[in-house]
């Protein structure tokens, strides 16, 4: 068995992986080239790939074009040099990335030359499209009045969180779809006026509960389907229910008590071994309407994939992440829309036959390019005739093979982000010394106290919203877990008042991290169903406590 070039652990190359790289073909005249089988284990491949993506942390800095202040995912002092322009400046027609082209130098390594090109070609400060009043968001499209959300589309008046889709007035949530007026919800679909609800669909006015389907007015409940007025899984009348939950209302202290009870409830409740719906021959978690997807996570309408995380309409892809709108035949690639036959690349949109390139749009037949739009037959952003391109690329690949570069993704040292800024840290958290030992960057940060009329410790905040003055908008609050200072936004305060919620005592980043802990690691284990004892693949490790049922037994129990 091969040994991973990063963690040094042995791993297995499966037959379907070998078959895939042979199927994937790049043709240069009479020369046919295939990618190499992976050199790292699946988990390290994911770490390396996602270490190049920051979708969460925003910084104020100057544009390298105009000098004006902008908001960017790139720190003013990036871990690897890069040139950053505002979104508007990057999209203007007064420049062309082909101007940064350079001839290939066979006396230097490819990665060194590509990193030099990367540092010079401008990058967008943030990637967004069609937003209104959403300056502090990343990876968002067609949103309005949103703040500190990422990877979200078609949302309005939402704040704090990840992956909101078609939501309104939702705060501190993640993986939330077609929902409204939700707070601290995780992995919910079509829910309304819910709080601290997780893994639920089609629910209304449910609180501090998990694994509900089609429920209304349930509090501290789990594994229920089509129930109403239930408290701790006990059926009550409407009057009895109102009396039971009244004690928890309008008090942050009582809210915390309910959260403690919810934590214990989750330990006692039944969990699906895997969230796989309407799929055939699939393993992983959060898969829907897919076929032949193995070791995959967060995918819908996809087919014939392996080791893919986050994909929509993805087909015939291996070791990829964040693949959207019908990408096909991609390998070792992150961030695409309608990409075809692409390998070892980053952010490729509406393009095909791409190798070792980044941030390219509506292009074809590129090798080692950055920031190109509507181009073909380019190497290191230099334009070639087709015959020249077909002759030169195989020579560069042989040069890379001799230098041990061919078959590896972009080096982690070329990422402008610290590991703790990147998506990799969210999927697979590491301590600083661990990240540095693997060669990743790390960003040490220190929060400055924002301009404020006074600074208050979170524990000293009023218990009830009725006791909270509007002047709190001018206060800096010290997080009771991290001591990091934070402020309450005006829209945020309005939401808390409307919903009669207490002011959060934790910094938004700590709340985000706690929320993401509800999601299991993207690792599969063999585990026996707690009822029928059938072996199944699950993200619940065997030693982890909890009741795990296979899908068939879970459905029978929840009916």
List keywords for this structure.
single chain, 559 residues, alpha/beta, 13-stranded mixed beta sheet, seven-stranded parallel beta sheet, 36 strands, globular
Describe the model.
It is a single chain. By secondary structure, this protein is an alpha/beta fold. Helices cover 20% and strands 30% of the residues. The strands form nine sheets. Strands 18, 19, 20, 21, 22, 23, 24, 25, 26, 27, 28, 29 and 30 form a 13-stranded mixed β-sheet that branches. It has a seven-stranded parallel β-sheet with strand order 7-8-9-10-11-12-14, covered by helices on one side. A three-stranded mixed β-sheet has the order 13-15-16, with helices on one face. The longest helix is centred in the middle third of the chain and has 17 residues, at 252-268. The protein is globular. The mean pLDDT is 95.
State mean pLDDT (0 to 100 scale): 95
Q: Which descriptor suits the 3D outline? A: globular
Strand proportion: 25-35%
Termini separation: 46 Å
Q: Helicity, in percent?
A: 10-25%
Give the tally of β-strands. 36
Task: Give a quick account of the main beta sheet: strands, pairing sense, barrel closure.
Answer: 13 strands, mixed
The value of Rg in angstroms is 25 Å
Summarize the structure.
The chain contains twelve helices and 36 strands. The protein has 559 residues and is an alpha/beta fold. Among the domains are: 94 residues, no CATH class; 63 residues, no CATH class; 34 residues, no CATH class.
